[in-house]
């Protein structure tokens, strides 16, 4: 009973805060709100990468891989970004430790770029990289407390957190596809604040 | 909270304990040490007192349990026989603080049999850290750190001695958690016995022992055949969960007495286990069925000469030689062509000489010297490898007033590693003959096993190499030579001398034994083990142009285990005994604790995707450890009715399982309730009745509660009915 009462009060508080916030928002109509999105992409486990654009919020076709239309791409658990050896763009990325939700401001500098094929901006190494790999089940799980801060081709800032990786059902020895689920916050106004 | 409380209380305990002894040594004059009576017979049914068994494992000389300052437990032949158990693992897993544990790589083959077999976890440490001995000599042939205990037949066992705490000061490498010593029976008179066992899954056990006692010589022949059809939990998976197998064991023993003071013992052991294999492979994305057999063989020979030339002098000269081999041949079912052959052969030859000095068994000094000549060859290693070691050990026992003190140490020089010296100090103080305090502290070490040094395994199916530390440079050079790796700084960083050093531990045990009215014994033991330089596999940040990754081994972790064990053993009368015990256990990784304290470890709830830092209170420690466990044994045998009954129960509290039901919260540590396998109880009952002069009929049910966990513990079948017919002449 006690908990019920509390949760009811809590709910009330949330509604009050939510309504008051939206009132404030009305006053600052000029500011475009940040884009928060949770999305999944289907990546091949070998050969080809799957490309993604934050601005468009969708997968970019492979034929556009030589363009600046995409920001990052995944194959199995290897992430490349559109710069240097990987693409014609100048996408930079910071691998950030901490809590995604409370991270409010993108850094000025420190962005890494794909320089050579063996020196990528994002470490996708088996134990040192952005995920945990279980050699027994071959499952990948994004490490908690790690996310990425992107600086896109047109100098927009995005924070991205990988959430999960699941193999698509398969017959045969090797899964052919893996689904990566991720969420991101894209700042369309070009500022560093999320 | 609890763990630091334990640690502090243990430290205080040690200080207080040694202080009391100091005072007692100064004050007391009259010695009250219990005299030795080593009859060696199982006298359990001739008395209504709780037994004070004679053991050999703790000091390498015969001593009564009450005189030994160490936590040691004895499983005698009578209770093994009355339980009807056929497999060593079933005997051991019902004991206090011993749990079945498997290699994580094996357990992850969910629903499939574990290729490495099951081992025993002791004081919270993995099976690799418990030394398994037969008659004091090491069993070799570990797969992924585990000795498959099905290689040891249950039959002519006199008793099993379980010594907890590091015993490296006597037995060398691997004895960090403790020692399980299986003592075989000696031929003492002319007799013949035969047992026929039949149980669920068409499991058939046939074993016979013949003993012949002549004037000066005594002979024993033991043979056992044990086979089963296995079982299948999941018809949708190709092959059985446990495939059919057949084990054979033969053991011959001869003791020749030259005179009253000297004798010669020779023993030969042979064991083979033949396990069927059947599984699917996928060459070029086609499904192909393959099948074959895995054959494990153990052969060993032991010869020991004992002489007692003077009252205060005896010596033992002995040689132990053993070979373990494991051969798997797998053929493609369609055309019978060979698909894969895996072979391993490991040989140990161990000559040893030991001198015992002193009259009183409680104040003996022993001095031993020996050499391990060990060789291994495998299809997964490049070439043959040797791991030879010279060792010398010493131990002195004293009785001062009512205090027993044992000081010992062992120096070992292994060709591959720096010399190791491992000391141990143990003290027992008898306030009264019924109230004994025991304390011991010792170090242990474990040399890296062959696999961690020499493995060179290219898993082409899943694209990775697993490479032993000493092979890493060679393998990387080979990849460069083939043009699969660039010859750059990053690669060369791993082409240095990759030296593994032995894993080390310090173990402390503090206990008290209290005997009430000669028929009730209370025992309490607190333990703490600190292990450093634990060897773990790691992945290199390198990938070949074919996309192949690399795993190797290095010394990284520091872990500790600590806890308490409490038992009550009560004898109601000469027919009826009850024994109950409980173990509390904490086992944690110190590095993880530091990282949590520094705020470096986070978790992400997989259902809400909300991340948060892991708090210290969230961290439950190492996987596969039960904080609470306990066991109960009720044994009844009435020699007038010539019948009895036995109940054995083992409770295993909840324990963590990595990746349980696909759960992963983004860190590899145990910090969520969803990562726990629920607690369970195994309950076995058996009854037996003598039929006439020669026969004894026994029937029972193992796992009466029918506990199963088909996916995560496929080694537990469920309820098993058995019947044994014993014949004795």
Throw out a few tags for this protein.
heterodimer; A: 194 residues; five-stranded antiparallel beta sheet; four-stranded antiparallel beta sheet; 11 strands; 34% strand; globular; B: 729 residues; mainly beta; Maltoporin, Chain A; 22-stranded antiparallel barrel; 38 strands; 10% helix
Q: What's the overall geometry of chain B?
A: globular
Strand content of chain B: over 45%
The order of strands across the largest sheet of chain A is 1-11-10-9-6
Average pLDDT confidence of chain B is: 88
- Using a beta-carbon cutoff below 8 angstroms, give the protein chain pair with the largest interface and the number of residues from each chain: A-B, 33 and 41 residues
- Total count of helical runs of at least 4 residues of chain A: 1
CATH class of chain B: Mainly Beta
By DSSP, the count of extended strands of chain A is: 11
Gross CATH architecture of chain B = Beta Barrel
Q: How many helices of chain B in DSSP terms?
A: 9
Multimer state: heterodimer
Kindly give the count of domains of chain A. Answer: 2
What distance lies between the first and last C-alpha atoms of chain B, to the nearest angstrom?
Answer: 59 Å
CATH superfamily of chain B: TonB-dependent receptor, beta-barrel domain
The largest β sheet of chain B comes out as: 22 strands, antiparallel, barrel
Q: Into how many domains do the coordinates of chain B divide?
A: 1
